[in-house]
Amino acid sequence: MFSEHFSHYAHTVFEKRLPLLGKTGEAVKERLAGCPGDIRALLHFYYGCMPLSDAFTYDFDLFYRYAAHAAALREQDARCAALPEEMFLHDVAWYRINSEKIVDCRSFFQEQLSPLICGLDTRRAALAVTYWCASQASYEASDECTQSPLSVYRSGSGRCGEESTFLVTALRSVGIPARQVYAPRWAHCDDNHAWVEFWDG
Fold this sequence. Notes:
By secondary structure, the chain is mainly α. Helices cover about 65% and strands about 5% of the residues. It has 10 helices and 4 strands; from the N terminus they run ααααααααβαβαββ. Strands 1-2 form a two-stranded parallel ribbon. Strands 3-4 form a two-stranded antiparallel ribbon. α1 (about 5-30) packs across α2, α2 (about 35-50) packs across α4 and α8 crosses α10 (about 160-175).
């Protein structure tokens, strides 16, 4: 499924990161030995490139579920399989959007959204996901802690950064490449604004 170039890169960055991961890295390496090849490559990529705090904060099983979900999309969804590999890795498979708490939610969102987008082209599917997210949550100022996408869904509200994280997660859950965007020079300061870009070819 993945190119030899990517698999080699992911393994290399993981091995370079291991000394910084200490005992956590040893435990991760042991768990990786039993993973299927494509999921293992994604986990190498995650652990090799993620913020170190994520490696120490979240358990291996959470990242495994993200990798397994992404690998299944790449293998089973024709639209996702046709994406350039780099775009798939960064804008579909990558587990983090911003500084949100990482929770296992992509399969849940996929289950909600798949019936809504069945048979639609990418642009119409992305718009359907956008309208669904807009129907689930509305803007509301909140505290400094960034809610997870699942918390936005459950509470029905969030700041623009949280709403956009929610939408990016929902789009990625069904294999549509998406990313969060901030106004230039305004990111992470007062009066900034976040929105979403998706790729439809």
